[in-house]
């Protein structure tokens, strides 16, 4: 049962995030400390330094030998359901688009498990809930955030290629056979039109993989989970000097991400940057579509009892802060993601309490 002390722990975990947010907002809106270019630079600092080290730090301290792999499998099934639905929507609906499918996937699936989820689920389900939420968070970093990074990089690389001037007379045949042209509409939809599909595809993939190889976000979690397997299998401990080097930057990860979000808000004309319609859309995906998909995946794989309840609760946690940082860096609906993070944390507590009360009747 959740008591006042548990409520205080959740509030105590959330308030520092909003303090960092307001400091970022005030530094631009009121005190005029940073210019827009400097705000972009700070977001890149967060994206390429503090967040990768934060990801490596909590991933490296996981114990994958104690994971509940049926819980992980249910998470995979739920994400596959969402991907299939979004792919059909993008393909078959006149309003569907590749860009909005990426953002909708983020809104449906990526959660802020560590900051809000751990204290809340601990109050609800004890150590079992904490273990499962941490497992889900580590798996999210390894698979789903890495997948998001891949599709964002592929989209940006495709747009970069499409903006390359078309070949002129005298260019070599080899060059003209692999340069795609693209049509980009006002909603951000990109349709690649290629005359020779295989060379164009592999040219695109080669550039994407080269960029990902230089992006610390793409391998921080991989290196972290590799260390976790080695350390727990042979009982190694990370050297203190290495741990200290990582912690000095990783501890700033969440705070600097919220600070960057506050600066982004200050640069917008309206407080609710994306407008009320998209705000409601984001809340529906975050707190209804995501948990519904997780419930289907969990029940299909036979999860029962508290494991089923935790699976649904963790799918209804607030929006991942990292998803905003990526959206800002790659220029894709950062206004929608920032609003989802800010308002999601505000409304999450009553929504999660409602889920908790309802799930008590589920056996």
TrEMBL record:
Keyword DNA damage (UniProt): no
Membrane topology: Multi-pass membrane protein
Entry's localization field: Endomembrane system; Membrane
Family matches, as Pfam families: Mem_trans
Superkingdom of origin: Eukaryota
Membrane-spanning ranges: 7-28, 69-90, 97-120, 132-152, 216-234, 246-266, 278-301, 339-358
InterPro entries on file: Auxin_eff_plant, Auxin_Efflux_Carrier, Mem_transp_PIN-like
Location (main, coarse): membrane
Keywords linked to the UniProt accession: Auxin signaling pathway, Membrane, Transmembrane, Transmembrane helix, Transport
Family assignment from sequence similarity: Belongs to the auxin efflux carrier (TC 2.A.69.1) family.
UniProt cross-references to NCBIfam families, sorted A to Z: 2a69 (TIGR00946)
Function statement: May act as a component of the auxin efflux carrier.
Protein name per Swiss-Prot or TrEMBL: Auxin efflux carrier component
Organism annotation: Rhodamnia argentea
């Amino acid at each position: 049962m959740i008591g006042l002390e548990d409520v205080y722990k959740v509030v105590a975990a959330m308030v520092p995030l909003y303090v960092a947010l307001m400091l970022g907002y005030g530094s631009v809106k009121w005190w005029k400390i940073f210019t827009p270019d400097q705000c972009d630079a700070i977001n890149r600092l967060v994206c390429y330094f503090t967040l990768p080290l934060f990801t490596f730090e909590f991933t490296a301290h996981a114990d994958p030998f104690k994971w509940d792999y049926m819980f992980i499998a249910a998470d995979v099934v739920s994400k596959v359901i969402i991907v299939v639905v979004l792919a059909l929507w993008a393909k078959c609906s006149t309003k569907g688009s590749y860009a909005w499918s990426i953002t909708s996937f983020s809104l449906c699936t990526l959660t802020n498990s560590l900051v809000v989820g751990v204290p809340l689920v601990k109050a609800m389900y004890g150590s079992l809930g904490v273990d499962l939420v941490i497992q889900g968070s580590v798996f999210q970093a390894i698979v789903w955030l890495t997948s998001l990074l891949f599709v964002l990089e592929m989209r940006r690389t495709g747009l970069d290629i499409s903006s390359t001037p078309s070949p002129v007379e005298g260019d070599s045949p080899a060059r003209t056979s692999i340069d795609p042209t693209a049509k980009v509409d006002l909603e951000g939809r990109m349709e690649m039109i290629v005359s020779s599909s295989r060379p164009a595809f592999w040219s695109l993939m080669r550039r994407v993989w080269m960029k990902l190889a230089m992006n610390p976000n793409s391998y921080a979690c991989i290196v972290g989970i590799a260390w976790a397997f080695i350390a727990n299998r042979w009982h190694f401990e990370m050297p203190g000097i290495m741990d200290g080097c990582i912690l000095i930057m990783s501890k700033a990860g969440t705070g600097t991400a919220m600070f960057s979000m506050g600066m982004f808000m200050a640069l917008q004309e309206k407080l609710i940057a994306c407008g009320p319609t998209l705000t409601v859309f984001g809340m529906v995906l975050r707190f209804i579509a995501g948990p519904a998909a997780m419930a289907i995946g969990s029940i299909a794989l036979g999860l029962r009892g508290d494991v089923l309840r935790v699976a649904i609760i963790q799918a209804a946690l607030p929006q991942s802060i990292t998803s905003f940082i990526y959206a800002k860096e790659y220029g894709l609906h950062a206004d929608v993601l920032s609003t989802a993070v800010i308002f999601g944390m505000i409304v999450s507590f009553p929504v999660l309490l409602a889920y908790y009360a309802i799930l008590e009747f589920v056996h």
